Amino acid sequence: MWYIIILSAILYSGAFFIQGAEFCILLSPFPLFYGLTRARNIRCALGYGLLWGYVVFGSVSWWALVVLCRYSDAHIIGSLCLYAVAIGYFAMTVALWFGATWGWIWWCDGLIKNENLDPGLRRGDNNNVHMNNTVNVRRRHHRAFVITAKALIHFLNECEKYVGIIGLGIGYFIFVDRWILFPLGKVEGYPFIMPYVPLAACKPFLQACALISYWCNGVETAAHQWQEQIELNYIAPVVNKNHCQQVYADKPSAVGQEIYWRLCKAQRDVDKAKTTLFVGPESAYPFVVNNDQTTISLWQSALNEHQYLLMGGYYEIKGKLYQTIFQWDKGRIMHFYVKKHCVPFVEKIHHSWRALLCAHNLFLKGLRFFSRGNYHIGCGILQVPGRVDIIPQICSELFMKTNTKEIQTKKRASRHPVVFVFVNDSWFCVYFKRLMQLIARLKAAWWGIDVVYIGHDGLSIFYPP
User: Fold this and answer.
1) Could you point out which of 6, 234, 280, 384 has its C-alpha 20 to 30 Å from the C-alpha of 262?
2) Which of 352, 309, 313, 314 is nearest to 327 (CA)?
């Protein structure tokens, strides 16, 4: 039955790669359940789990191997080993899920096979017993009752079996979504493997999510009035992981000058009668901003009245470095927002891993760690006075940290709320960038608020259904 398990894994993982095939993820449980019910023993079920886990996690998490090979200091063999160990861990969690599911099926099937309401009715019990007609009639009535009762109990046991199977599946994916990455030092999940990600491309699924969120959380859809108030203008980054990184390394003045010229060029297409908001992605200026008064003054000189600039850079205070979104107007830095989640090994290494030099050298060799921000540094809402209230999210915050309650609190405190997501997606493959945008689209439906996704390839706006 291993080929049935592979079919299920292909249906599941294919939904993440092939546009228009998102429905395949709904078909994958059927061959999976068929294969599990025919597993001979627990060892066979565990083997099926390892096979399914390696195929699904190994394919959908392909982006991680690409990042390791391209951007880490690890050798190609070391990258492959790290990738294999990570996928092996994920596959073992799937094996435990399959083992528990097989055990539940075995237990329920044992109950069904052993049920017997009336042992006296077994074949051959009445061969030597003389019964008159009245007794025969009573026995036939009793037999009909027993058959009906056994059919009902069989049906209830089957329902119990399927409810348990569904419950174990839901429980496993809740574990994946919230806790599976705990070996990295932080209790958090891995949402990019969840079945709701490819389904976010389907409008009926988004409508269902919006309805469920309204029932469960009282979430109401915010009006789109903010777009009537401002004009968005995207400023492409000068440097990222795939473009001019070596040319502009340790040259903040050159990067600042290039951004200034791009601001000046963008002024040609601006409607002077409207408030204009220039936006750039996370790490568009990959240097400390708040100590560079020359660059600050240069950018401010490119802004006219009723024009604002939101762009990612670094904020340094008391020896700590933060990923930050700055908001400028013509005269000064008005507000800034600091990131409150650090990506393990890329932005910060948990103290439990710092003793390993190889972990430190993967992405942060010769670089400073970022610090995790708190609510006492910066502000939670970036306001364009009288026009729009921006709820900022920086990259991994959207995927691994934010919760509906926090967003709804900020949403109720705003007149024209909108979520801006600033992302450094220059690290990733094309298919993974699409998964990130699908999650942003799903968040728009779940939160009932417009989400503006600002990446290194441009910006997209997602509306709730």
Assistant:
1) 384
2) 309
Stretch 372-389: mean pLDDT:
83
Q: Tokens at residue 65, please?
A: 């191997």
Taking the C-alpha atoms of residue 147 and residue 359, their distance in angstroms, rounded to an integer, is: 65
**pLDDT one-digit tens code per residue, 95-110:** 999 999 999 988 887 7
d(CA 180, CA 178): 6
Question: Which class for 462: exposed (0-12), middle (13-18), buried (19 or more C-beta within 10 A)?
Answer: buried
At 390, give phi and psi (nearest 5°): -95, 120
Average pLDDT, the chain: 84
Tokens of 63: 């982006």
Q: Are strands 382-384 and 451-455 parallel, antiparallel or unpaired?
A: unpaired
Report yes or no: 23 and 66 within 8 Å, Cβ to Cβ.
no
- Cβ(395)–Cβ(377) below 8 Å: no
Distances (CA, A) of 281 to 4, 66, 170, 204, 233: 44, 22, 35, 30, 12
Q: Which amino acid is at 370?
A: F
Neighbouring residues of 264: CB distance < 8 A, sequence distance ≥ 6:
302
Two structure tokens written together for 97: 């899920």
Residue 115 · residue 154 · CB < 8 Å:
yes
Strand partners of residue 460: 453
Q: pLDDT of 269-292, one tens digit each?
A: 887 778 889 999 999 999 999 888
Delineate the domains of the chain, giving CATH numbers in brackets.
2-122+130-199 (no CATH), 204-340+375-462 (3.60.110.10)
How far is 349 from 41, CA to CA, in rounded Å? 41
- 78 Cβ contact partners less than 8 Å away, ≥ 6 residues apart: 358
